[in-house]
Every structure is written in structure tokens, then in C-alpha cells.
Write a structure and sequence with these properties.
two-stranded antiparallel ribbon
Length: 79
């Protein structure tokens, strides 16, 4: 399963602690944040895809609707 959770953007200290600079291509729609602090999570994660590797091939398409109830205040930075 792949999980998804709403998060606020990490503090600048997170980026300075990375062993390499964080780069994103212009127009990028995905930003990978390794070792993201759990403190930025606004609501519990939910599964949004199940690749079912035991079936030897994932389903060609999946649809899921997620609803999150935030547990703390924060600024959601993207979807």
C-alpha cells in the first residue's frame, strides 16, 4: 500500500540538515522529502493505492476518495 497524509511544509532547518541540496525542476508536481519529520503531519495517513504485487501485476487503474480530518493547525502546502 502507498499511504498519503496532509502535511505542512517543513521548517528551513529540515532543508539545511539534508546531506545534499533539495532541487526541484521548474513545473515539478512532486517533491520528495526524505526523512520528513513526523511533526509536520496534520492528519493520519490513509492508503491511496494498493499495488498488490502478490498478483504479479498491479491493476491498470485505481480510484479512491480520501477524506482527512486534521488533528492540528497548520498550512497545507499542495495536494
Amino acid at each position: 500500500q502507498t499511504l498519503c497524509a496532509p502535511c505542512s511544509f517543513p521548517e528551513p532547518e529540515y532543508f539545511t540538515s539534508l546531506p545534499y541540496p533539495m532541487l526541484a525542476a521548474p513545473g515539478a508536481t512532486v517533491l520528495k522529502l526524505p526523512g520528513l519529520p513526523r511533526s509536520v503531519i496534520l492528519a493520519p495517513a490513509q492508503p491511496f493505492e494498493d499495488l498488490e504485487f502478490e498478483l504479479a501485476q498491479p491493476r491498470p487503474s485505481q480510484a479512491v476518495e480520501l477524506e482527512f480530518v486534521t488533528e492540528k493547525a497548520g498550512e497545507l502546502r499542495g495536494l
